Amino acid sequence: MAKQKLKIILPVLILLLAIALMMVLMKGRQPAEQRQDLPVGVLVDTITAQPETLTYRIASQGTVRPKLMTSLVSEVNGRIIDVSPNFVEGGFFAAGEVLVTVEQDDYLTALKAAEANLARATAALQEELARVRVAEEEWASFTEGDAPELGLRRPQLARELANVRSAEAELERAARDLSRTEIRAPYAGLLQSRAVNLGQFISRGTVLGSIFGTDLAEIRLPLSDNDLAFMQLPTAAQPQFPAVELSALVAGQPQQWQGKLVRTEGVLDERSRVIYGVVQVDDPYRLQTDGRQPLRFGRFVHASIDGISSEQVIPVPRNLLRPGNQVLLVNSDQQLEFRAVQVQRTDERYAYVIAGLVAGEHLAVSALPNPLAGMQVRLGRVDGEWLESPSESTIDMAGD
């Protein structure tokens, strides 16, 4: 009986002790520390808006061409008896240099015949002058009053005078034809192509070759209306020529040449709707200046033209310009802000802002997938310099 009561009472006592122990433990438990999670902003790199005074550079491109291009044409008939050593493709020659000589025998004979004809006409004129003097004296000795023209041999004198002038013209023509047997270079240049050779018979009008002048080179540069808005073109009242820097790769090495924009062609191209500006380069083959890379005809070059100047302009990398001419800023509260700006001009690298930005403001340059206005951020690198250690930022973000 006592054992049965003990079996019933013992589990109850154990349960009560356990409940009492649990209550004691619960009363002695310290409350868990409450921690408030603060939102941590995304780390954003920025650049500082800095106003500048800029001289715009207008980019274009074109092919180098000679200003002077001439086809040499024979003005006489004959066989070529001499050719200058410089009369080869790519050969350089001076102004007035004899390039081709045509056989002169027939022209020397014609010159002598013209000289003889002039001598006969001159002698006939002198003889007629003597007859006129005799006629005047005879008329004065026998008759008073004005003598008739025929009586004083005035028509005969005029005829002989005309014969002399005709003979002089023939002599000039013969001398001119003789001089044309030497085909001379009209200016300093180089031979672009050659069509005749030694011993060949040519006639009047035969093309001997094509030459280029080497004193000046020209490059036609296409310019849009937007380009013209930022350029100061030369005019009759203000003939200042904007400087132009030309560049190209020559044998794998970058080379530069200096030129000047001297004029525009004045007519818009009907297909491209651009106007062409003409740049001149003095002595492109550097024949008068040694040691410099020549600017050869036919080379394709890039051009950078000096434009107008503008003050208080903020250059913004073009990839930061968003649709609607907006940029993404980090304001003083370290929150993202979209700002509409006024862009004066854009090129391949920059958009030039003249309104909407203040000096010292931070432009976000980090690639953010879904930026929202008011999003909390932290400044990382500003103009390439870290404001906050990147290692600490990583630890803080991992801890959070």
Give the helices and strands, then pairings.
Layout: H1 2-28, E1 42-48, E2 52-66, E3 69-73, E4 78-83, E5 92-93, E6 98-102, H2 105-142, H3 154-179, E7 182-184, E8 189-194, E9 201-202, E10 207-213, E11 216-223, H4 225-228, E12 243-250, E13 253-264, E14 275-282, E15 300-317, E16 326-330, E17 336-340, E18 342-346, E19 350-355, E20 362-364, E21 377-382, E22 385-386, H5 390-399
Parallel strand pairs: 1-21
Antiparallel strand pairs: 1-20, 2-11, 2-15, 3-10, 4-6, 4-9, 5-8, 6-7, 8-10, 11-14, 12-13, 12-15, 13-14, 15-19, 16-17, 16-20, 18-19, 21-22
Helix pairs in contact: 2-3
TL;DR?
The chain is of the alpha+beta class and 400 residues long.
The protein's oligomeric status is: single chain
- The overall pLDDT, averaged over residues, is 84
Straight-line N-to-C gap: 66 Å
Helical proportion?
25-40%
Number of helices: 5
How is the largest sheet built, in terms of strand order? Answer: 17-16-20-1-21-22
Query: Topology as H/E string?
Result: HEEEEEEHHEEEEEHEEEEEEEEEEEH
- Low-pLDDT runs: 392-400
Outline type: rod-shaped
Structural class: alpha+beta
Radius of gyration: 48 Å
Strand element count: 22
Estimated share of beta-strand residues = 35-45%
Described by strand count, sense and barrel closure, the largest sheet is:
6 strands, mixed
